[in-house]
Amino acid sequence: MRRPILLFLAFATLGLVAQAPAKSPQELRAFFQQNCVRCHGADGSAHGPDGRKLKGFDFTNAARMANQTDAEMVRTIRKGLFFGWRMPSFKGKLSQQDAQAMVQEVLRKAQKGKAIAP
Ligand code: HEC
After folding, report:
1. In whole angstroms, what is the distance from residue 6 CA to residue 19 CA?
2. Are 100 and 70 in contact (CB under 8 A)?
3. How far apart are CA 35 and CA 38, in angstroms?
4. Does 44 sit in the ligand 1 pocket, CB within 6 Å?
5. Who has greater pLDDT, 34 or 6?
6. Which atom of ligand 1 has the smallest separation from the CA of 99?
7. What would the pLDDT profile of 52-80 be if each residue is shown by its tens digit?
8. Contact 83, 10 (CB under 8 A)
């Protein structure tokens, strides 16, 4: 009587995966606008429109970006920083795959003065 339960679990797991289709780069840029701009700035440079430095990491700083691996950045996006106090966790909203794409397709392509937009 084990089989039906295992089958059920397998389908339930597949169902969960299927429920969350990977986000496109456009969706990720929109997601950035809605969730990251207040700390990382419209262009990802962590500077506000009035030149004020925000609290986040400057994604347009090539030297800093070169020091950070994709895996480290993905981990921060999923887990947050300092228990979500400095930066919230986006685990519930971005899958591992989405966080990876966020780093590669959005953050690593950020250019100073060019707003990240869909
Ligand atoms: C409440 C403010 C806040 C929000 C919102 C926020 N961040 Fe951050 N983020 C920070 C701070 C603060 C740092 C650390 C800056 C530093 O160490 O120089 C950081 C660092 C990072 C880093 C560098 C991680 C590393 O490896 O050190 C990444 C990548 C990142 N944020 C991505 C994001 C993304 C993507 C979003 C939106 C989905 C986001 N953040 C939203 C505050 C925020």
Report:
1. 20
2. yes
3. 7
4. no
5. 34
6. 35
7. 999 999 999 999 999 999 999 999 999 99
8. no
